[in-house]
Design goal:
alpha+beta; about 240 residues; 7 strands; globular; about 15% strand
C-alpha cells in the first residue's frame, strides 16, 4: 500500500502542482527591468514569465525571465532557478510544436522534412544568458534567450564552430534594452510632441536596419503562443 508520505506520491503531487502553477495568461502588470511588458507575455509560472521579443533576431526568438528583477543569475534561489529553466523547457517544447511541425499553422517549417514532427529534436535551439553588462546584458533583469533554429530555414548554415547569432546578439540588432528604451522614448515624444528648439526640430531616434515590431504584432504573436500552450495543456490532460 502506498502511503501519502511515499516518494512516488510526492513526485506525482509535485508534478501536478507545477502544471497547475503554469498559466499562459498574465494576471497583472509584468515588468522586464523598468519596462512594462504585460501585452508581450505569453506564459507565467509561480516564479517566471516568458515574453515575445521587440526585435527578434530570428522568428520565434523569445525571452524567459524570473518574476523578481534580479540582475544576476547567481541571485536566484534554488526554487526560482528550477522554475526558470523548467519554463525554458516548456517554451522550447511550445516553439518546437509551432516551428518544427509540418502543420499548416507553421509558416516557417519545412514540410518535406520527415523529421519535422513538432518535437524539439526536429530542429535546434540557441539558449543564451548575457549575465551582466560586460557580457552584453542591456536590461538589468536576468533573461534567457530562446531561439529556434529551423532546418532548411534559420538553422546554422555550415557545420563547425562559430555561429553568427552570437555576434548578432552582441551587436545593435541584439540590443534588447536599447529597443525597449527607444519605444518608451517614442511614446513620451508622442505625448509631449517635438522638443521646441530654435532653428530646428528635435532629432528622431535612429533605428537599426532591423526595425522594432508594433505592439499589435507582438500581441498577436503572444496570443498565438498562448494558444499553442493551451492546446498542449489540453493534449497533456487527455494523455
Amino acid at each position: 500500500m502506498l502511503r501519502k508520505g511515499g516518494s512516488i506520491f510526492n513526485l506525482i503531487f509535485t508534478s501536478v502542482t507545477q502544471k497547475r502553477s503554469m498559466s499562459s495568461r498574465p494576471s497583472g502588470p509584468i515588468h522586464f527591468g523598468p519596462f512594462e511588458v504585460t501585452s508581450q507575455v505569453f506564459l507565467t509560472t509561480s516564479h517566471s514569465f516568458a515574453l515575445v521579443n521587440l526585435k527578434p533576431l530570428l522568428p520565434g526568438h523569445v525571452l524567459v525571465c524570473p518574476r523578481k528583477p534580479y540582475r544576476r543569475l547567481t541571485e536566484l534561489s534554488a526554487p526560482e532557478l528550477t522554475d526558470l529553466f523548467q519554463a525554458v523547457q516548456r517554451v522550447e517544447r511550445m516553439l518546437a510544436r509551432h516551428y518544427f511541425s509540418p502543420s499548416p499553422s507553421n509558416q516557417n517549417g519545412d514540410s518535406h522534412d520527415a523529421l519535422a514532427d513538432g518535437s524539439p529534436e526536429a530542429g535546434s535551439f540557441n539558449i543564451a544568458i548575457q549575465d551582466g553588462a560586460e557580457a552584453g546584458q542591456t536590461v538589468s533583469h536576468v533573461h534567457v534567450h530562446v531561439i529556434p533554429r529551423i532546418r532548411g530555414s534559420t538553422a546554422k548554415e555550415a557545420p563547425g564552430p562559430g555561429d553568427q547569432i552570437y555576434e548578432s546578439m552582441a551587436a545593435e540588432e541584439g540590443n534588447v534594452g536599447g529597443a525597449l528604451w527607444d519605444r518608451e522614448m517614442k511614446k513620451l515624444q508622442r505625448q509631449l510632441g517635438d522638443r521646441p528648439e530654435p532653428g530646428g526640430s528635435f532629432p528622431s531616434i535612429e533605428d537599426s536596419e532591423r526595425h522594432p515590431r508594433s505592439a499589435e504584432e507582438m500581441e498577436a504573436e503572444a496570443k498565438m503562443f498562448r494558444d499553442v500552450l493551451e492546446e498542449m495543456g489540453e493534449t497533456e490532460k487527455g494523455a
